[in-house]
Specification:
The protein starts with 20 loop residues before the first helix and ends with a strand. The protein has four helices and four strands; from the N terminus they run αβααβαββ. It is mainly alpha-helical. The protein has a domain of about 90 residues: 3-Layer(aba) Sandwich (Rossmann fold), CATH 3.40.50.1390.
């Protein structure tokens, strides 16, 4: 019997690759019979990983119990519900990734626009650089003089 928490480890990482849970699944599998998780989406955010974990549990005579959802994963209906939840968790993860990518892209554009304005203002204020406006490459975000 033991207790492990993979704090600040993304559920998008395979359970076998996580620092603490992975140790129990890979090296200490003979030391437990039941794997308790707080919620299904905390152990797997992809259908592939959840199915692999459920198959692993079957092969090794282990039970997977979700405390929050409260359904029996040893029954066909319990496994079906768990897989549906995994589909929703996977969709949520993809939506989060898309929002982060869009947010980063918008931030880069805003920063690039701000740098371009700063470069133009410096170029036009400097007597020596009046005829050399600044150009900013959006790909690198670097300012250079023409």
């Amino acid at each position: 019997m033991g207790w492990e928490e993979d704090i600040d480890v993304s559920a998008s990482l395979s359970p076998w690759l996580r620092p603490k849970v992975g140790d129990w699944l890979n090296e200490r599998r003979d030391e437990f019979d039941v794997l308790y998780v707080y919620k299904i989406d905390r152990i797997a955010r992809s259908v592939k990983d959840l199915c692999a974990l459920l198959d692993w549990c079957d092969e090794h005579g282990k039970s997977l119990v979700s405390i929050e959802e409260g359904f029996d994963l040893s029954t066909p209906w319990g496994r079906t519900v768990a897989k549906i939840l995994a589909v929703l968790a996977e969709a949520e993860l993809e939506a989060i990734k898309a929002r982060v990518r869009a947010s980063r892209a918008a931030l880069c554009v805003r920063q690039a626009d701000g740098l371009a304005a700063l470069c133009r203002s410096v170029a036009w204020r400097s007597e020596r650089m009046t005829a050399m406006p600044c150009a900013l490459t959006r790909s690198t975000g670097r300012c250079y003089w023409r």
